[in-house]
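Board notes (copied after class):
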Amino acid sequence: MGSDSLKTKVYEVVRKAGEKGLSQAKLWKSLGLTSREGSRFAIHLEKRDKIRRKRVLEEGRWTYRLIAKTPPKSISNLLEIPIPKELTAPQSPRKGGLTKAYKWHRERKSRTSRFLLDRELIELNRILGELDLGVKSREVADEAHDIFKKAIVADLSRGRSIEAMTAAVIYAACRRLSVPANLNQICKRARARKKVVARFYRKMLTMDIFAVPLPDYSIHMERLWNKLGSSVLRKEVRSEAVRIFDKAQSIGVLRGSHPASIAAASLYLACLACGARLSQWEIANVAGITEVTLRNNYKKLKSAL
């Protein structure tokens, strides 16, 4: 008789013994097995979860009693098991039925949102403090925080860094409030990549998280004037620069060019017309552009006007 058939026979004998089981010494004698062979078969059946070995004291000697683990004979036995009332009732998160996982998920999301908002406020104050937007800093901070909360509600924070998100909402707030702000400078203060910040900004724009009003190009000229100061530029230079800038806007020279570069080129052209001593490098550095961009836009303005 093979080992598999012997194992099957051992299991059948133990199963027929019922709930009380059968001592392994009697089992070995009835089947004509040695204690070594019987112990090996019993351990194998126990590992396969067919039987249970219980150590008992019989006739003054310790031995094992083998008890079979019999599965239900049919699926009808399972159907007779009573089902808890709370599982049979209709479940709704709002009505309080079976809401442990739902509540945990909701609390986890709220904890994550609070953590993100706390981190965002720290980064927001730090970046705006380094940008130094003057009296507009408070308005930009409030607007940026509102935009950030809308982005959290829209679930746009997944997989994005706090620094990049904060830089994007600051730039969006500046655009909404018509505050002149350079994206390169914001990214530099936020220590975030410009490409990532611009991508998140466009994502918020396409999902209607905020709306950008029509641009006011004159603010770029005001920004240049405030940074250079009245001690460097005379009033007639400013008036001439504003006239050139308005004329360039009316004839459509601004199309396809950044307004800051056109404002810098208008200021440089006005300096040449009024005899003011201001180099291309000084104007380009204040405007946040390169000298090559300034020269190209200067040539464009000169040929158009």
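Comment from the instructor: The beta strands are 22-23, 51-58, 61-68. The chain has a mean pLDDT of 76.
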